Amino acid sequence: MIKARVTVTLKNGVLDPQGKAIEHSLASLGFDGVGGVRQGKVFDVQLDTADRGKAEADLAAMCEKLLANTVIEDYTVTLL
Amino acid sequence: MNSAVLLFPGLNRDRDMIAALTRIGGKAPHPVWHTETELPDVDLYVIPGGFSYGDYLRAGAIAARSPVMAALRQKAEAGKRIIGVCNGFQILTEAQLLPGSLMRNASLHFVSREVLLEVANASTAFTGGYTQGQIIRCPVAHHDGNYFADEKTLKTLEDKGQVVFRYANGTNPNGSINDIAGIVNAAGNVLGLMPHPENLIEPAHGGMDGRPLFEAALGLLSRPAA
After folding, report:
1. What is the pTM (predicted TM-score) of this model?
2. Which pLDDT value is given to residue B223?
3. In chain A, how many H helices and how many E strands?
4. A12 reaches B (C-beta below 8 A)
């Protein structure tokens, strides 16, 4: 079995009002010097295979087809 | 004229849409559950609003991958008229039947209010009952209506007249780019819009501004839609 972590984040240039709200909240808690916050998503996926090449290909296809909306989001896949 | 309404778990504006299509079209639309792999042959397919699959992952993301959507894609490619309202618009963008994406409202608040819409293109199959530049009233109710498209897509939409409705007179409720409230695909047969025209179709609603959209879509206008 292979465990993987998929991280999905907004593309550069796409406004992130939620990240902005978090940034403001951090400032109100007294954390100075926060230059920016971007909110994203993390998916931990288990695959019933030992083939790391197949796992990477499958995970990329999963990101393209469902996990990320590639109009607005980028993704990275890490095999753990 | 016959119509069909696509139904997904978690929608909540389906009854309003069915009532509107029945009143205006004179016939109840065919209800189609999301597990179906074939669609009836009708003149208009509608995806109503709501919160399909609880907006899990992204609004409309799970519904867009349902079995019935493959059948809808075929209807779109065959040039059939399709309307997605609110969650229906989100589902159509997630299915890539319409370009761009609908993001969290800039205010981060759910908005439920009336807005003003400018008819930005009155020569589509859906807007022949309006005049170019006409300002109409329409209710909105959504959390993810902030339309976004990259620069190139946006330029195409604007240049080709694919922006059909724009929030007017400073009533943009969600931060949508270029005040976009509704768009059509390049072929002009698929319309998505965040506002709810089905909730303004008879005097008891306090207005009828949404009615011409359905009259046009159902082919009921006395003058032919362009």
Report:
1. 0.94
2. 55
3. 2, 3
4. no
